[in-house]
Each structure stands twice: as C-alpha cells, then as structure tokens.
# Entry
Amino acid sequence: MRRHARDAAAASATDLTARIAGTMHAVTARIARGRGDEPRRRGVAPSEPSGDVRLDEWMGVALDEARAAPAHGDVPVGAVVVEIGTGKVVAARHNERERAGDPTAHAEILAVRDAALALGRWRLDGYALVVTLEPCPMCAGAAWASRVDAVVFGAADPKAGAVGSLYNLAADPRLNHGPAVTAGVRAAEAAAMLREFFAERRT
# Structure
C-alpha cells in the first residue's frame, strides 16, 4: 500500500515537472520568435496562465503569506513548499529581514528551512518551491541546494531575479542539477502588492 502511494506520488511529480518544463520550453520559443534572438530572460513569461489550477492555488497561499510581511516593515513576498504529488503545503513563510534583523531571512529561505525541519531531511525532491517574487541569487541557490523539483514564481524581478531575469541558475549546464521553472503565476497580484508597498513607503 505504501509502495503504491509512493509510486503514485512520484508519477504525479514527474508529470507536473514534465508539464512545467514543456510550458517553459514553448514560452521560450515564442519569445525567441518574437524577438528574433535568444531571450535574455529565459523561462520568464509574466502574463502566462499556469495551465494548472494547483499552481494558482499554491500561489494563493504564498500571496496570503506575503500580505503579512508589511505589518513588521518587510517587503511583501511569500513562499510555500508543496508536496507535488499530494498538493500538501508543508511550509509557508514570508519575508522577515526587518523583523529578524537577518539579511538571509527571505521567504524562500525560511520556507525551505521549515520544510526540511518538518520532513526531517534536507533533500526536498518531490516538492515545489512556490514564491510570489522571482528568487534572488541566494534563494535560487537554496532551491538548488535543497533539490526541489520545481520553482514556481509570480512576478519577475528585473533587479535581482536569478531564475530567468538576470541569471538563470536553474538552467546553468555547469551545475549538476536544477529545478523546472514556471513563471508568471498570478504575477499581476504579486506585482500589485509590491507596488502598493513601495508607494506607501514613499509617501
């Protein structure tokens, strides 16, 4: 029974990863055709629908987390770690740099740490990291180090994004592995939250 459940979960994870990879390949090809060259921001399509209602639901949990960050002066970014096969959220966090006085307290780092603690292991294969803003180099490195199978993000980050905008650690052939990446899931909501936060800080 347990073996059957593990096999089913593994098959579901493989299917989602394959669909994410296929979607991003198609998006990349379309961007390249439109520009006539290799796109600099590979795999980033801010207005693309996810094509999978689960991704929208998972991002909804991350967005809810992000909304809690401004209460303590932090940028509204939320992240969750989800078991791909079952859809179970095992960790959900938001930015806490200001509250903790910790430069590494990004939502992704905190969520990955919580997931590893909850599961009792550092390898997060079979899981997806879902975050409202494209991961920075530090957080993209955490995704690589934790062996998550997929990274899903909302708004692109042209200033620090490291899975498509400035760099693409997930697709660097010099690394021994990398997660499948899908971008633009509920991007408008994530971007609007960030704009509102910074507009209020400027007033």
In short: The CA atoms of residues 49 and 185 lie 6 Å apart.
